């Protein structure tokens, strides 16, 4: 009864403030259970309304918060205003491009350790420490160089093939039943073919001169890289022919009699040239045969895929991979030898 009488003596403004405070607290209680949870808006409204009440009225109300709680809210607000974001502890993360490059160098060079890779990175403009390279390799699970070196036969033979070149002669019977000969060289490492000459009569002097022309050609096979020359025992491969290659430090290896597989790579090219070109054309003479074999050798070097080269042509071994095809890719065709051979290329 006395509480109701006291309400009659109070002003309407004080009553409105109390009502707003109690409504806010009721909203908090309805929203949270079992412990009230105040949002930033709740704290701001309660703090503002409590300032409008007198100390006697604040103490008479049943509040969910105490003055100490309000002060804590203010202290947190001040701390949040003047707190700046600090850098995360430790070193910054390594660039993903650097990580990918380190793993690529390790994958493509199984004999390189982390210090050798570090030196290569410095030459490429990456300013990193050797310990960074070591850490990247360790996190990727890459073994040290002596443990991941490739000792397989395929790797050994591929390394040996880089300095080997073979020579052989392809013969073709013309439409008039005259035999014409083609002297060619083929590199074992790249499978690249070099047409040395075409003639109706192979002599020792002619073969020797074609060998000299091959080594002097600026855009042809490099003389410095030849370590071994494989040839058969034909009479036109004389000591003068061998001397052309021994003069540059190469060793001449004649195949055994009756063992053509010792020169298998050259024999394989002879078979491919016959099946894909000369056996499907009537050769009229020496000039015609020169045009045919030169065109086929160009197709062999520039476009024809080879399994030993990862289905890449000899001239494109060191070039980037072609772009991946999609539904919008367009393929065009180029004809060689009058449409006898087709070459396909992807265009944008």
Concise synopsis of the structure shown:
This protein has 348 residues and is α/β, with parallel strands linked by helices. It contains 14 helices and 7 strands.
Write the layout of secondary structure elements.
Layout: H1 2-9, H2 12-31, H3 40-52, H4 55-60, H5 67-81, H6 96-108, H7 114-123, H8 130-139, H9 145-148, H10 153-161, E1 164-173, E2 179-187, E3 193-199, H11 204-216, E4 228-231, H12 239-246, E5 251-254, H13 264-276, H14 286-302, E6 330-336, E7 341-347
Parallel strand pairs: 1-4, 4-5
Antiparallel strand pairs: 1-2, 2-3, 6-7
Helix pairs in contact: 2-3, 7-8, 11-12
Domain Integrase catalytic: 142-321
Region (Disordered): 299-329
Pfam family, one: rve_3
Can you describe what's shown?
It holds the Pfam family rve_3. One of its GO terms (biological process) is DNA integration. Residues 142-321 form the Integrase catalytic domain. The protein is α/β, with parallel strands linked by helices and 348 residues long. It folds into three domains: 2-81, no CATH class; 96-148; 159-316, 2-Layer Sandwich (Nucleotidyltransferase, domain 5). The protein contains 14 helices and seven strands. Helix 12 (239-246) links the parallel strand 4 and strand 5. Helix 2 (12-31) runs antiparallel to helix 3, helix 7 crosses helix 8 (130-139) and helix 11 runs parallel beside helix 12 (239-246). The longest helix is centred in the N-terminal third of the chain and has 20 residues, at 12-31.
């Amino acid at each position: 009864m006395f509480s109701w009488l006291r309400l009659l003596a109070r002003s309407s403004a004080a009553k409105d403030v109390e009502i707003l405070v109690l409504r806010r607290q009721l909203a908090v209680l309805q929203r949270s259970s079992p412990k009230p949870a105040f949002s930033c808006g709740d704290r701001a409204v309660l703090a503002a309304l409590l300032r409008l009440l007198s100390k006697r009225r604040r103490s008479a109300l049943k509040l969910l918060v105490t003055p100490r709680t309000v002060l804590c809210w203010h202290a947190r607000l001040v701390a949040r205003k003047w707190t700046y974001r600090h850098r995360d502890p430790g070193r910054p993360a390594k660039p993903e491009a650097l990580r990918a490059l380190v793993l690529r160098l390790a994958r493509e060079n199984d004999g390189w350790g982390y210090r050798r890779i570090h030196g290569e990175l410095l030459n490429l403009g990456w300013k990193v420490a050797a310990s960074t390279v070591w850490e990247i390799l360790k996190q990727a699970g890459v073994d040290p160089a002596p443990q991941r070196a490739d000792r397989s036969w395929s790797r050994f033979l591929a390394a040996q093939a880089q300095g080997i070149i073979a020579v052989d002669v392809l013969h073709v019977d013309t439409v008039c039943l005259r035999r014409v000969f083609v002297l060619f060289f083929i590199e074992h490492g790249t499978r690249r073919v070099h047409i040395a000459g075409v003639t109706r009569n192979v002599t020792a002097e002619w073969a020797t001169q074609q060998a000299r022309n091959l080594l002097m050609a600026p855009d042809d096979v490099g003389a410095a890289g030849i370590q071994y020359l494989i040839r058969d025992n034909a009479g036109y491969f004389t000591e003068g022919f061998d001397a052309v290659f021994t003069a540059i430090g190469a060793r001449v290896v004649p195949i055994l009699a009756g063992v053509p597989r010792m020169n298998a790579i050259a024999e394989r090219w002879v078979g491919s040239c016959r099946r894909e070109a000369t056996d499907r054309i009537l050769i009229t003479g020496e000039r015609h045969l020169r045009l045919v074999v030169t065109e086929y050798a160009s197709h062999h070097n520039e476009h024809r895929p080879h399994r030993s080269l990862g289905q890449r042509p000899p001239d494109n071994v060191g070039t980037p991979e072609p772009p991946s095809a999609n539904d919008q890719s367009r393929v065009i065709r180029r004809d060689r030898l009058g449409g006898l051979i087709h070459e396909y290329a992807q265009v944008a």
